[in-house]
User: Fold these one by one.
Assistant:
Number 1:
Amino acid sequence: MSELVQYALAGGVAVITIQNPPVNALSPGVPEGILDGLGKANADDTVRAVVLIGGGRSFIAGADIKEFGKITSGEKKRGVGLHPLLYALEDSPKPVIAAIHGQAFGGGLEVAMSCAYRVAVPTAQVGQPEVKLGIIPGAAGTQRLPRLVGVAKAVEMCQFGNPLKVPAAAALGLIDRVIEGDLLEGAVAFAREAAGKPFVKVRERNGKLRTPDANAAIFASAREAARKRQRGLLAPLAAINAVEAATRLPFEDGVKEEQRLFEDCLFSTQSKALIHVFFGERAVAKIPGVPSETPAYPIRRAAIIGAGTMGGGIAMTYANAGIPVLLKEATRQALDRGMDVIRKNYAASVAKGRFSQEVMDQRLALVTPALNYEGFEEADIIVEAVFEGMALKKQVFAEIDSIAKPECVLASNTSTLSIDEIASATTRPHMVIGHHFFSPANVMRLLEIVRGKATGKEVIATSMALARTLGKVGVLVGNCRGFVGNRMFGPYRREAQFLVEEGADIEAVDRAMYDFGMAMGPLAVGDLAGLDVGWRIRKEFRHLEIPGVRKPLLEDRLAGMGRFGQKTGSGWYHYDENRRPSKDLIVEELIARVREEAGITPRHISQEEITDRLLYSLVNEGARILEEGIALWPVDIDIVYINGYGFPAHRGGPMFHADTVGLDKVLARIREFHDRHGALWTPAPLLERLAREGKTFTQEGSKHA
Ligand code: 3HC
Ligand code: NAI
């Protein structure tokens, strides 16, 4: 037997246990081990049924995702896949019972569906999440699932990849029995009942497949949903096609069609990008010099200062995670307004059916409004979210320094200011760190964790663990103006404005990025975030401007006209009462004036130039950020951009995208822009080196892994 799979007997029932921590992925050796166990069970006359169960925290989380990269890079040949195992399980004369806890995902569910029966604990989850990796089920999931749950549900599960909880799965017929007590005991008891009784193989259960005509509406609406909600993604459409094949073709032919579609997806850039993101989201938590055993402070109580846009959202984030939070404001009026926004946000979620009134009441009860620092001495963390201004931040930090207990983490939500300078207002800079949330803080997944010069390891470890508790992806970044995300956003939004000054339409600039896959274009984002925000920041940093270097002109002018974006009903666009944007003649006139003042003759600008200038401004700044050590790895930048800035995950993030284009090509284009537009486009030395050496950012990053 393989070491990864154990075999035991329990009174006439063979128990095959997978032991491949942490999540029992189907790594090499696991399928072979199960097959051996099954052979043994079928050869043993005392065995009447078989239980297949996972050791540790899950049944099987799927195929081993690490293997995919080896196949697509050519390092490894694609083997026979899981099919021989699945046919053996399904054709076993003695019934095999899959006993599920934790997750049966991807290949794990495909294994379970080849068994005669499936039993599960109520907390388990089942699903075909492959689309999230840019692939589709590759071991007949698209063929067996519709036979068990029906076509509509199978399409939904394979197209969106979301897991099902056991009660729902049982109602659909995917789980045969829910085991309330000990899973192994319950599964063995079930196996004894099933022993000797006839059962129908899943691949022969065609009752729920219906006819192609009857299913036509299901596939049409699935494709429509893909067009709207999965813009530009290949795998969801392939998944729909594969399930459709199940309804049109005999099982074996359907499997072949699934295989063909699976291979197309596996070798796609999208899949490579999404797998890069899967491992990237986990890699960001691994920090050199801060090993996983670094002690973290327990965070049981939080306190927040400032109940504005960010403070309110941060308070909700804590409450949503079950952590009680004090929310302090400067005035009664601001406090009432802040609490009112929180209440309204929660009520909107209840109205949309996201959670119940009871849950809303529980969460709201965790937020205690405050007008002074009473109770702050008990907080494990204090998060400052007052206006962006150094003098005010320092004053607030000096105040909390005098009240907070020694082991209290002091976090600032500043988006641009120096954490070191803020920390200097305290007697304990080692306890000070940046927690840069993104708006709306209760929704956006990114948390930039900003390490100051003095920030202690324990405070970093606490922040990383806390990010996870709060349901965020925490990325550790260094202290500089704008940190990683906003620092890169500066050149990106600068180029967007330059492009308009030089002749591009506002809509064309936004459309280029939308077509690339961004959630919104750069100018529309400005209107959403508020043009006054950048305007105020630029005023704060005016002393750092270099004379003679070209500056974008339009946003300061727009903000100066009181056009702050959506919140004032006008910015780059005009907004109606439903916040629908339209072209605004006043802005067109302003652009014409600004061009004239600056002596710019407008020219036609291609979509390609717009896309390249916007994306490569991100990449060039990203390379500098890496050189300076502000981001630890290229993938950290990718994770920041995907989770905080609406960068399409299927492009892998700006640095991965540059890799897929080829760094020599990216550099050549940046050099062209440098020749045409001057110093702002000076190529980053790291990019020049990697292009010269024929390397990628990913290869450079993995050196440190
Ligand atoms: N293959 C390889 N490694 C995996 C893995 C997998 N399928 N699933 C998880 N891991 C690794 C993670 O990378 C992580 O490694 P690390 O500790 O070195 O960072 C470790 O296992 C623990 O994972 P998480 O930190 O994510 O643990 P959680 O408890 O938060 O989540 C989980 C567990 C819900 C199972 C989550 O890991 C998950 O969703 N995994 C992916 C599941 C998936 O996509 N399965 C389908 C694979 S494709 C497939 O099966 C194709 C088939 O159709 C042929
Ligand atoms: P905001 O103006 O909406 O809220 C700030 C709040 O702080 C106001 O309600 C104000 O009354 C309160 N305040 C000021 N002084 C106070 C004091 N001494 N004690 C208690 N409350 C006080 O501002 P917003 O947008 O929430 O920004 C807060 C911080 O978050 C800033 O540092 C900003 O740079 C940062 N940030 C903002 C983002 C955004 O998209 N708005 C995104 C990420 C960070």
Number 2:
Amino acid sequence: MKTVLITGAAGDVASYLRRELAGKYKLRLSDKRKMQKTKGETFIQADISKMPDALKITKGVDAIVHLGGYSVEGPWETIHKANIVGCYNIFEAARRNKVKRILFATSNHAVGFYRRDQKIDHRVYIKPDSRYGVSKVFGEALGSLYADKYGMEVFLMRIGNVNPKPLDKRRLSIWFSPRDLAQLVSIGIDHPDIKFEIVYGVSGNRRSWYDNSNAERLGYKPQDDSESYAQEILAKEKPGDPRPEQYQGGIFVVVEEVANPAAERGGAKR
Ligand code: 15L
């Protein structure tokens, strides 16, 4: 059984993923915050903005699912520490520890300034909608470098919004159900021919803004479609600000800060 490191393991996305992947891989969890592990998991508390911590958690694993970092738009110092320094440390520690395979949770916000009337695939030029989006593009660029220069196997998932149900009209287009997330992550861990791939981390939504044929080529067959929630969600939707409504990234294209879900739950600010 492969040993897989999940960084940012105390976060929401990881909590869904751990449930879905239990029993399939030996999970090594790491986070800056203390957290409860369950049977079959190990936990190492670590601050990935410190290289010795990054080296410690990546030692001896078969693959890394790098979810750790600051997950929304916010102050540059915070994003820099978590998503630039932290992300670099994870790639570099993986290289030094000879971990070949790394899955990186990039985001729809790396391309959030594409308009909603455009359908984009994995080959489009980046169009980040925020400093947060720029930090995700940095991670994508690191992935490209480490694949080409060091032969690492890099799987970049531009994740939409992971939730048991889509939250609003924008999320009908980018919803990613926990079981589809688990399927895509398993492909990223186990597919024998990954060199460098960009895929969209979304379910099979009828309203999708993405041509996700690269994920499908690798065997991804999403089981969920947000359309079954559309009526209920659209009935509740209030008319929004017209500028963010034009763009895939929504409010990220206009605001300087988005409420941090981790801080609101009482988790540590990164
Ligand atoms: C993201 O990249 C964030 O990590 C997540 O918290 C959501 O804001 C999501 O995008 C989204 O666009 O809904």
